[in-house]
Amino acid sequence: MELNTVAKRRRTDMHIVVPGDVITTDTGFMRGHGTFTVGDELVASVAGVVQQVNKLICVQPMRSRYVPEIGDVVVGRISEVGQKRWKLDIQTRLDAVLLLASVNLPGGQLRRKSAADELLMRTMFVEGDVISAEVQSIYQDGSPSLHTRSLKYGKLTVGSFVSVTPALVKRCKNHFHVLPCGVAVVLGNNGYIWIGKSSDEESQKTDAGKPKKEDQEVTRSFREKTARVRNAVLALAAQGIAIFVTSVIYAYEDSEEFDVKEMVKDDVIPEFTARAKAACVTGDL
Predict the structure, then answer these.
(1) 42 DSSP β-pair partners
(2) Of 21, 150, 238, 277, which is the most buried if we count CB atoms within 10 A?
(3) At residue 235, what are phi and psi to the nearest 5 degrees?
């Protein structure tokens, strides 16, 4: 494959290869994970997505667990409440850790956590809660440490949870978006995606830091919009198309001629994902 083709594909992060495919014959590139060299050819050793960082080329496997990096935005589910920490499933080899010292207290208080705060940990997050967070550091055993110190992170209460292959979620500067239809999405780098109300609609909290009862009530039209966005994301994943805000908007807009229930049909999915797929191929996204 020619170098200019690699550069063109790199803009979408969706150049998919299988073992044995020649990625490039240019000797100016360095070999990364998932590749090996045969003479002057850089060849893929796994099936996945070609990723390029400056002169380094690697292949991210399509069916692998998420490998966390510092600064990644993730969506996770609380799996355990322990001593001064929560454990979360973020689709990694080991559970992520969220320390009590790495969260904002209810009401946004800024002070050192005490023993009383440890007794109130279950008033913040309990098993099964879905939250958004950022990877703060990586421990020596490979497990990530998270934090939710920014106001944009925290519990996600009203919406739908979707799981896709992590390699399909495109790395962007911003992973929090409000679509033109009014539905908010959190595109986690770990392949977990949250679709629901925007943070502005959930900003009114009680003194305990929990959403008010009226904030948790949603209209039928909003539920339908949420379901349409969810089906659009799953359709993009089924077609192997990069998932980020533009591709989701394309799929949502093109699906409006179909009923929400029809969006899951195999013969309908290619019709409303064609524009997003063509834009990925041409690099127009």
Answers:
(1) 24, 37
(2) 277
(3) -70, -40
pLDDT tier at 207, thresholds 50, 70, 90: very low
Label the pairing between strands 176-178 and 154-156.
Answer: unpaired
Q: Per-residue pLDDT for 5 more than 70?
A: no
pLDDT for the residue numbered 6? 44
For residue 55, the tally of other CB atoms under 10 A from its CB is: 10
C-alpha torsion sign, points 236, 187, 65, 70: positive
3-state secondary structure of 89: strand
Q: Render pLDDT for 228-284 as a digit per residue (tens, 0 to 9).
A: 999 999 999 999 888 999 999 999 999 999 999 999 999 999 999 999 988 877 666
Give the distance between the most distant pair of CA atoms in the chain: 66
Q: Which residue stretches of the chain are H helix?
A: 3-10, 115-119, 121-124, 220-238, 245-254, 269-282
3-state secondary structure 214-260: HHHCCCHHHHHHHHHHHHHHHHHHHCCCCECHHHHHHHHHHCCCCCH
Confidence of residue 151 (pLDDT cuts 50, 70, 90): confident
- At residue 56, the 3 state secondary structure works out as strand
